[in-house]
Fold this sequence. Notes:
The structure holds two protein chains of two kinds.
Chain A: H1 3-19, E1 32-38, E2 43-52, E3 55-64, H2 67-80, H3 85-98, H4 110-116, H5 125-141
Antiparallel strand pairs in A: 1-2, 2-3
Chain B: H1 11-24, H2 34-53, E1 62-65, H3 68-80, E2 89-93, H4 102-111, E3 114-118, H5 128-134, E4 139-145, H6 157-165, E5 171-174, H7 186-189, E6 193-197, E7 208-212, E8 230-233, E9 238-240, H8 254-270, H9 272-290, E10 296-298, E11 308-313, H10 318-326, E12 333-335, H11 340-345, E13 351-355, H12 362-379
Parallel strand pairs in B: 2-3, 2-4, 4-5, 5-6
Antiparallel strand pairs in B: 1-7, 6-7, 8-9, 10-11, 11-13, 12-13
Amino acid sequence: MTKQELQQLFKSEILPENDNPYHFQEPQKASFSIEANNTMCGDKYTLYFDINEGQITSVYFYGIGCALSKASISIMCKNIEDLSAKNIMALSNKFIDGMKQNHSIEHSDKKIQMLHQLKHFDGRVDCIKLGWEAVKNHFENTEL
Amino acid sequence: MDNAATTQRAKSVVAAQSQFDLYENANIHRGIYDLSNQATQKFENTRTKIAQFLSSNNANTVAFTQGTTASINIVAQSFLAPKLKFGDNIVTTIMEHHANFIPWQMLAQKYQIELRIVPMDKNGDLDLIQLKSLIDRKTQLLAVSHISNTLGTIHPIDEIIGIAKSSEIPVLVDAAQSACHFEIGVDPLNCDFLTFSGHKMFGPFGVGILQVSEKYVEDMIPYNFGGGIIENVQIKKTNFRNFPHNLDAGTPNVSGVIGLAAALKFISEIGKSNMESHINKLTLLALDQLSQVSGIEIIGNPKKRIGIISFNLKNIHPHDVASFLNKDGIALRAGTHCTQPLLSAMGLHATARVSFSIYNNEEDINTLIVSLKELMKFWS
C-alpha cells in the first residue's frame, strides 16, 4: 500500500467510522459484556450485548484503541445486531478466515469487504481482527 | 528509529559470524581435533574480551546467555529462588521492562514473598526516598534498569546501588539500554548482577551476557541440566562445574558469541563516549524539534534522559502514527514497550517511541518532524 493509498483509505473509510463509531458508549444496562484487549499495543474495549429470547438485540462498545480497531469493531457491531449467537459465530468465523492471506471471501456488506481488503496491511491485521476474535472466542465457549 | 528494540548489525559482526559458520564451525569443549579446539579458543577468548569490556580481569564472572531476559531469569532461578523464605521481599521498580519485572513477580507468587515496587514521579524519575523505605533486612534483591526503555530516563544508578549496598542487599542492573554507550560492569557499578543483550549493541540475536560479582559466583547453581555443565555423572549423583560453566547446559550459541565479540570491537573502535555524545546530541535536538509539533505530548521529563523518547499525538493512536510514518520510511515503535506497569502508572495505554543509535543523524530527525506535522494536518 502506498502512502497515497493509505491516506485515501483512512480519509474515505477508516476516519469517518473512527470519528462516528456505531453505538460507541457504555449502555446503562447490558445482558453481558466481552473484553477485547490487545496487550501488545494497549487497545482495550468492552463490548456490551443485550439479548431477548436468544437473539442479540443491541451491541454497544466502548474503550481505547487505534482507528483501525475502533472502525472494525464499529462495523462489526452494526452487522451482528439482531443475529442469533449461531449466526454471529458464523459471521465472525467467516471474517477471521477471510483475513488469512490466501483466503478470498465475499461479503455482502461493503464495509466488511473493505476491511478484508486490508489483510495485506502489514502489522495491522491484529487491530482489524481484535473485536471479531473476542466475539468469536466468546460465542464458541458460551451459550446465550 | 527503533534502536531500543534492536540495533542494526555491524558488517564486521556479520562477517565474523559468516567466517565461523562457513569455515570454522565445530562444537566447543568436546572435540580433540583442531577445528573444535579453535572454536573453543575463540569462544573462551570472547569471555575474556567481554570481561575486559566490563572492566574486569576475571573472565569467570561472565556467562553467555540467550539475552537479557534469559540472564534475569537465570538470576531468579539459579541465585534467588533457593534462598527465598517466608517473610522475604524483592524490590524492583515501576519503570522496569517486563523482563525485569515478571520473573520477580513469579518468584513472589510461588514463594509467597512480597514484591515491592519503587514508584516514580510524573516526570519519569524514580522516587529514591521510597526506595530507601522499601529496602529492609528481609530484602533479598534489588532489580533495577540502568536506562528506561520507554522514557529514556537515565537512573542515578550509583545512588540507587549505594542505597541497597548500605544494607548489603545484592543488586541486579538491567543494562540492556546502556551497554552500548555507558561504562558498565559489576565492578565499576559496584552491583552484583549485570545483564545485557547482543542485539541491542550491533551484535546478533540470541546471545547475551550475565555478569556476576565475585561475591556471588559460588551461589550460582545450575538451573537447567544436561551435558556441558558437569564434572562427572554417576547413576546416583552428578557433580557440576563452577560458574560460569555450570549454566549453559547443551551446546551454546557459539556463532552468536563470536558475533558478539565483533560487536564489542566495533563499539570499542568508535568509542563509547563518542556514541554517548552523538546520541545525546540527537536526543536534545529531537526533544527540541518534537516540542514544536502541534498536538504532541512528550511523555515524561526526567532529570537525565538519553536516546529514547516516547510521545503521543492528540487524537491519533500510536499504531496509526507508526503506520503513517512507515510510509515515509520511518521505523518507530508503538505500543506498551513491554512496560505496562509504567504506562498504567502514567495513565497511558500506549505511546509512540523513537530511539536513536550512532547511524541516525539530524536529517532523520528533520524527516521525523516533517512527517509528524504532515500527519497532524492530515488527521485534522
